[in-house]
Amino acid sequence: MNQQGQKPSDFQIRKCCAGGFKTLLQLFRELWPDKPIRPATLRKTYNRGLTRESQAYISVIDKARVVGFGSLTIKNSLWQEGTVGHIDELIVRHEYRGRGIGTQLLSCLEALAKERKCRRVELDSAHHRKEAHRFYEQRGFHNRAFLFSKVL
Ligand SMILES: CC(C)(COP(=O)(O)OP(=O)(O)OC[C@H]1O[C@@H](n2cnc3c(N)ncnc32)[C@H](O)[C@@H]1OP(=O)(O)O)[C@@H](O)C(=O)NCCC(=O)NCCS
Predict the structure, then answer these.
(1) Cβ proximity of 140 and 106 under 8 Å
(2) 28 CB under 6 A from ligand 1?
(3) How high is the mean pLDDT in each 10-residue block of the chain (152 residues)?
(4) 24 lines ligand 1 (CB under 6 A)
Protein backbone atom coordinates (compact mmCIF):
# COMPACT_ATOMS: atom_id res chain seq x y z
CA MET A 1 0.00 0.00 0.00
CA ASN A 2 1.40 3.45 -0.88
CA GLN A 3 0.63 6.99 0.29
CA GLN A 4 -2.22 7.16 -2.22
CA GLY A 5 -3.72 4.00 -0.73
CA GLN A 6 -3.10 1.92 -3.87
CA LYS A 7 -1.55 -1.53 -4.00
CA PRO A 8 0.40 -2.63 -7.14
CA SER A 9 -2.48 -5.04 -7.81
CA ASP A 10 -4.85 -2.06 -8.25
CA PHE A 11 -3.16 -1.35 -11.58
CA GLN A 12 -3.98 -3.39 -14.68
CA ILE A 13 -1.30 -4.77 -17.00
CA ARG A 14 -2.42 -5.17 -20.61
CA LYS A 15 -0.96 -6.08 -23.95
CA CYS A 16 -0.84 -2.95 -26.08
CA CYS A 17 -2.92 -2.41 -29.19
CA ALA A 18 -2.78 0.00 -32.14
CA GLY A 19 -5.46 2.23 -30.61
CA GLY A 20 -3.31 2.89 -27.57
CA PHE A 21 -0.52 4.72 -29.36
CA LYS A 22 -1.66 8.29 -28.68
CA THR A 23 -1.72 7.77 -24.93
CA LEU A 24 1.75 6.19 -25.02
CA LEU A 25 3.30 9.21 -26.77
CA GLN A 26 3.44 11.19 -23.53
CA LEU A 27 5.31 8.33 -21.86
CA PHE A 28 7.81 8.09 -24.73
CA ARG A 29 8.43 11.84 -24.42
CA GLU A 30 9.14 11.31 -20.73
CA LEU A 31 11.50 8.42 -21.48
CA TRP A 32 13.48 10.36 -24.13
CA PRO A 33 13.21 14.04 -23.13
CA ASP A 34 16.11 15.09 -25.40
CA LYS A 35 14.98 13.16 -28.47
CA PRO A 36 12.89 14.99 -31.08
CA ILE A 37 10.03 12.53 -31.56
CA ARG A 38 8.34 12.22 -34.96
CA PRO A 39 4.93 10.83 -33.98
CA ALA A 40 4.02 9.49 -37.44
CA THR A 41 7.30 7.57 -37.80
CA LEU A 42 7.16 6.31 -34.23
CA ARG A 43 3.56 5.16 -34.75
CA LYS A 44 4.62 3.20 -37.86
CA THR A 45 7.43 1.52 -35.93
CA TYR A 46 5.07 0.77 -33.03
CA ASN A 47 2.45 -0.73 -35.36
CA ARG A 48 5.14 -2.87 -37.02
CA GLY A 49 6.19 -4.15 -33.57
CA LEU A 50 2.58 -5.11 -32.77
CA THR A 51 2.52 -7.44 -35.79
CA ARG A 52 5.79 -9.22 -34.94
CA GLU A 53 5.81 -12.54 -33.14
CA SER A 54 9.18 -11.64 -31.68
CA GLN A 55 8.00 -8.45 -29.96
CA ALA A 56 5.71 -7.71 -27.02
CA TYR A 57 4.42 -4.36 -25.77
CA ILE A 58 2.68 -4.11 -22.41
CA SER A 59 1.20 -1.17 -20.57
CA VAL A 60 -0.04 -0.45 -17.07
CA ILE A 61 -3.40 1.24 -16.70
CA ASP A 62 -4.77 3.20 -13.76
CA LYS A 63 -8.40 4.20 -14.25
CA ALA A 64 -8.13 4.29 -18.06
CA ARG A 65 -4.83 6.21 -17.90
CA VAL A 66 -1.61 4.64 -19.21
CA VAL A 67 0.97 5.02 -16.44
CA GLY A 68 3.65 2.53 -17.49
CA PHE A 69 5.04 0.77 -20.54
CA GLY A 70 7.46 -2.08 -21.19
CA SER A 71 8.64 -3.81 -24.34
CA LEU A 72 10.43 -7.03 -25.10
CA THR A 73 12.14 -8.46 -28.18
CA ILE A 74 12.94 -12.15 -28.47
CA LYS A 75 16.34 -12.64 -30.08
CA ASN A 76 17.76 -15.79 -31.54
CA SER A 77 21.17 -16.18 -29.87
CA LEU A 78 24.08 -18.38 -30.89
CA TRP A 79 25.81 -17.43 -27.61
CA GLN A 80 22.90 -18.79 -25.56
CA GLU A 81 22.20 -21.61 -28.04
CA GLY A 82 18.57 -20.56 -27.91
CA THR A 83 16.62 -17.38 -27.32
CA VAL A 84 17.31 -14.28 -25.22
CA GLY A 85 14.69 -11.73 -24.19
CA HIS A 86 15.80 -8.12 -24.65
CA ILE A 87 13.92 -5.44 -22.72
CA ASP A 88 13.93 -2.45 -25.06
CA GLU A 89 11.90 0.09 -23.10
CA LEU A 90 10.69 0.39 -19.52
CA ILE A 91 9.04 3.54 -18.22
CA VAL A 92 6.67 4.48 -15.41
CA ARG A 93 5.03 7.91 -15.39
CA HIS A 94 6.93 10.15 -13.02
CA GLU A 95 4.20 10.67 -10.42
CA TYR A 96 3.52 6.90 -10.29
CA ARG A 97 7.10 5.82 -9.53
CA GLY A 98 8.04 4.01 -6.33
CA ARG A 99 4.67 2.18 -6.12
CA GLY A 100 5.80 -1.19 -7.43
CA ILE A 101 4.63 -0.67 -11.02
CA GLY A 102 8.12 -0.95 -12.54
CA THR A 103 8.68 -4.20 -10.63
CA GLN A 104 5.36 -5.56 -11.91
CA LEU A 105 6.20 -4.62 -15.50
CA LEU A 106 9.64 -6.22 -15.23
CA SER A 107 8.17 -9.47 -13.79
CA CYS A 108 5.63 -9.57 -16.58
CA LEU A 109 8.31 -9.11 -19.28
CA GLU A 110 10.41 -11.83 -17.61
CA ALA A 111 7.40 -14.17 -17.57
CA LEU A 112 6.80 -13.52 -21.29
CA ALA A 113 10.47 -14.25 -22.00
CA LYS A 114 10.28 -17.50 -19.99
CA GLU A 115 7.17 -18.55 -21.91
CA ARG A 116 9.22 -18.12 -25.09
CA LYS A 117 11.93 -20.39 -23.61
CA CYS A 118 14.45 -17.56 -23.21
CA ARG A 119 17.48 -18.52 -21.21
CA ARG A 120 18.15 -14.94 -20.18
CA VAL A 121 16.67 -11.52 -20.17
CA GLU A 122 18.89 -8.53 -20.88
CA LEU A 123 18.70 -4.79 -21.44
CA ASP A 124 20.92 -1.81 -22.02
CA SER A 125 20.58 1.41 -20.11
CA ALA A 126 22.19 4.82 -20.66
CA HIS A 127 24.99 5.90 -18.29
CA HIS A 128 22.92 8.70 -16.75
CA ARG A 129 20.07 6.43 -15.59
CA LYS A 130 21.70 5.70 -12.24
CA GLU A 131 18.41 5.07 -10.39
CA ALA A 132 17.33 2.60 -13.05
CA HIS A 133 20.67 0.77 -12.73
CA ARG A 134 20.11 0.33 -9.00
CA PHE A 135 16.55 -0.77 -9.74
CA TYR A 136 17.76 -3.53 -12.10
CA GLU A 137 20.62 -4.67 -9.87
CA GLN A 138 18.24 -5.02 -6.93
CA ARG A 139 16.10 -7.24 -9.12
CA GLY A 140 18.80 -9.74 -10.04
CA PHE A 141 20.37 -8.10 -13.11
CA HIS A 142 24.14 -8.14 -13.37
CA ASN A 143 26.07 -5.46 -15.23
CA ARG A 144 28.06 -7.80 -17.48
CA ALA A 145 28.97 -5.69 -20.56
CA PHE A 146 29.37 -2.30 -22.21
CA LEU A 147 27.10 -1.27 -25.05
CA PHE A 148 28.81 0.24 -28.13
CA SER A 149 26.68 2.23 -30.53
CA LYS A 150 27.43 4.00 -33.84
CA VAL A 151 25.23 6.36 -35.81
CA LEU A 152 24.71 5.27 -39.45
C1 LIG B 1 13.14 2.55 -13.42
C2 LIG B 1 11.62 2.65 -13.30
C3 LIG B 1 10.95 1.97 -14.50
C4 LIG B 1 11.17 1.96 -12.02
O5 LIG B 1 9.75 2.05 -11.95
P6 LIG B 1 9.00 2.17 -10.53
O7 LIG B 1 7.55 2.01 -10.78
O8 LIG B 1 9.44 3.41 -9.84
O9 LIG B 1 9.58 0.89 -9.82
P10 LIG B 1 9.16 0.25 -8.40
O11 LIG B 1 8.19 1.15 -7.70
O12 LIG B 1 8.76 -1.14 -8.65
O13 LIG B 1 10.52 0.22 -7.67
C14 LIG B 1 11.12 1.41 -7.36
C15 LIG B 1 12.48 1.16 -6.87
O16 LIG B 1 13.33 1.98 -7.64
C17 LIG B 1 13.72 3.10 -6.85
N18 LIG B 1 13.45 4.24 -7.72
C19 LIG B 1 14.18 4.51 -8.80
N20 LIG B 1 13.78 5.64 -9.36
C21 LIG B 1 12.75 6.09 -8.65
C22 LIG B 1 11.90 7.23 -8.71
N23 LIG B 1 12.11 8.17 -9.64
N24 LIG B 1 10.88 7.36 -7.84
C25 LIG B 1 10.71 6.42 -6.90
N26 LIG B 1 11.49 5.32 -6.77
C27 LIG B 1 12.50 5.17 -7.61
C28 LIG B 1 12.93 3.02 -5.57
O29 LIG B 1 13.73 3.48 -4.51
C30 LIG B 1 12.61 1.55 -5.44
O31 LIG B 1 13.68 0.89 -4.83
P32 LIG B 1 13.60 -0.56 -4.15
O33 LIG B 1 14.23 -1.45 -5.17
O34 LIG B 1 14.41 -0.45 -2.94
O35 LIG B 1 12.16 -0.90 -3.93
C36 LIG B 1 11.17 4.14 -13.21
O37 LIG B 1 11.89 4.76 -12.18
C38 LIG B 1 11.34 4.94 -14.48
O39 LIG B 1 10.46 4.95 -15.33
N40 LIG B 1 12.47 5.63 -14.62
C41 LIG B 1 12.71 6.55 -15.75
C42 LIG B 1 12.86 5.82 -17.06
C43 LIG B 1 14.03 4.85 -17.02
O44 LIG B 1 15.12 5.19 -16.59
N45 LIG B 1 13.76 3.63 -17.49
C46 LIG B 1 14.76 2.60 -17.60
C47 LIG B 1 15.38 2.65 -18.96
S48 LIG B 1 16.68 1.46 -19.10
Answers:
(1) no
(2) no
(3) 60 92 94 96 97 97 94 97 98 97 98 97 97 98 97 96
(4) no
CA of 93 to the centre of ligand 1 (A): 10
- In ligand 1, which atom is closest to the CA atom of 31? 42
Q: Confirm whether pTM is higher than 0.90.
A: yes
E-only strand ranges, the chain? 12-15, 55-62, 65-77, 82-92, 118-123
CA dihedral 108, 55, 34, 103 (to 10 degrees): 10
Nearest-atom index, ligand 1, CA of 139:
33
The pLDDT of residue 64 is 85
